[in-house]
Specification:
Shape: globular
Largest sheet: 7 strands, antiparallel
Oligomer: single chain
Structural class: alpha+beta
Number of strands: 28
Length: about 475
């Protein structure tokens, strides 16, 4: 009995010691990123651009170009500008205009980064991990995906491998390397919070959401998995403060690989086009269409003579799969179709009249569709000689962005009457002489009937803001 009492405390002591020894291993069971950073950091680059800047209207140290057009909660990482002395024309000389990141994807100098990092740059400077600086050539840039491909003249460079981002799992550890606020080769880590996110500003990218600390300067930098492969390119954050708030978004590597190949081979990107207007499936709509749950994308309209029209898709169809990939939200249809090369066959699973069926569609070209739409719009333009204006039909995307239901777009201003009014190309005229403006021809008819010598009110929308102007016609 005495031996048992001595033996048990001794065993408990051994167990406690084993637990103490095991506890650090459990606490330190977090991944060790040191080897990953050592191996991958040499292929990450710092990017700055040179651009002749107009004189600043304010002394704000972080003046972000185009800030007014970007929703506050989704800000691209327009990087820090460095103020310089003004020349005699009131412009800044070429000085570093932005600071971002990128990474090498080939040993002969191809570099992937964000479109917004190099947008409107006159010159692009790349600094390597070994502190060499080189001028980079812009091979191509795609604003829709916010990706750009650069090239520097060098050989035997370290480079990174793009992983299959479809294999990435929510909860998986990821790591970012970049230059936040100019602090080169900063490393931050976190986990994948979600996949396939659709953001308001980018409809063609199924973003990876993470909680990795990302700030201005990380733009264009790589997001790694634990194998040291690139699974994403850091691009956007959700913020109300301008800095990191726990939500970061990266472009999946599969999207980047597709864009990279197209930019390298042709300098431009051509996406697949289906030719439908779609909407989310609500709970009530799901019930009315015979679905058990609110999933899929409801076809609200089929564009005439589009691939969808030719294949027999109909308004009221609910797309639930594209090439075997589930469609949970309407945005996923755009993601899937945009990634399919034009001319390729795609298989759509749709629910029609409560029954599931397969429809094969030959995917069209988004670029061709946009060119046709542009030509159609140009063929519908009207020159209003009495006002010295050329106007076009209201663009659907602009109408959505500015929440307009009617109006015409000014495409050209060439006479004194319009100049005196300060009318500009890009303005949208929504009413004139207290009459609603519907289309170019109706606007031209209104102008022809205007009286002379009387004040005429015209309502315009400029940069999303409405205002009234007044003028008199003398003839």
């Amino acid at each position: 009995m005495i031996q048992r009492q001595v033996y048990m405390p001794f065993m408990l002591l051994l167990f406690a010691l084993a637990s103490l020894l095991a506890r650090p291993a459990s606490a330190n069971g977090l991944p060790d990123f040191t080897d990953l950073v050592d191996q991958s950091a040499p292929a990450v680059v710092n990017i700055s651009t040179l651009r002749e800047l107009p004189k600043r209207r304010s002394q704000q140290p972080f003046d972000m170009p185009g800030q007014g057009q970007i929703p506050d909660i989704f800000k691209h990482f327009f990087e820090r500008q460095f103020p310089g002395l003004l020349d005699q024309n009131g412009h800044q000389p070429n000085t570093p205009q932005s600071l971002g990141s990128g990474f090498l994807v080939s040993e002969d100098g191809y570099i992937l980064t964000n479109h917004h990092v190099i947008a409107e740059a006159d010159e692009i400077i790349v600094r390597l991990n070994d502190r060499r600086e080189m001028a980079a050539q812009l091979i191509g840039s795609d604003e829709r995906s916010d990706l750009a491909l650069l090239k520097i003249e060098a050989d035997n460079l370290p480079y990174l491998t793009l992983a299959d981002s479809d294999d990435l799992r929510v909860g998986e550890w990821v790591l970012a390397i970049g230059s936040p606020f100019g602090f080169d080769y900063s490393v931050t880590a976190g986990i994948v919070s979600a996949k396939g996110r659709s953001l308001q500003s980018d409809t063609y990218v199924p973003f990876i959401q993470t909680d990795v600390a990302i700030n201005p300067g990380n733009s264009g930098g790589p997001l790694f998995n634990l194998a040291g492969e690139v699974v994403g390119i850091n691009s956007q954050i959700y913020t109300r403060s301008g800095g990191f708030m726990g939500l970061s978004f990266a472009i999946p590597s599969n999207t980047a690989a597709n864009i990279f190949a197209q930019l390298r081979d042709s300098g431009e990107v051509n996406r697949g086009w289906l030719g439908v207007h779609i909407q989310e499936v609500s709970k009530d709509l799901a019930e009315s269409f015979g679905l058990d749950k609110a999933v899929g994308a409801l076809v609200a309209e089929v564009v005439a003579d589009s691939p969808a029209f030719e294949a027999g898709l109909q308004a009221g169809d609910i797309i639930i799969e594209v090439n075997g990939k589930d469609v949970i939200t309407s945005g996923q249809v755009v993601h899937h179709v945009g990634a399919i090369p034009p001319g390729q066959q795609a298989l759509f699973t749709v629910v029609r009249d409560g029954e599931s069926q397969l429809i094969e569609v030959t995917i069209g070209s988004l670029a061709d569709a946009e060119e046709k739409a542009k030509q159609l719009a140009q063929s519908q333009d009207v020159y209003v000689e009495r006002l010295g204006l050329r106007v076009l039909p209201l663009d659907e995307d602009l109408a959505t962005e500015w929440r307009l239901s009617n109006g015409v777009i000014i495409s050209e201003v060439d006479k004194e009457t319009a100049a005196e009014l300060d009318l500009r190309a890009g303005d949208v005229i929504t009413s004139m002489a207290n009459r609603r403006v519907v289309d170019p021809q109706q606007f031209a008819d209104l102008a022809a009937a205007l009286p002379t010598g009387r004040s005429i009110a015209v309502r315009i929308v400029r940069d999303g803001r409405s205002m009234f102007l007044a003028f008199r016609l003398h003839q």
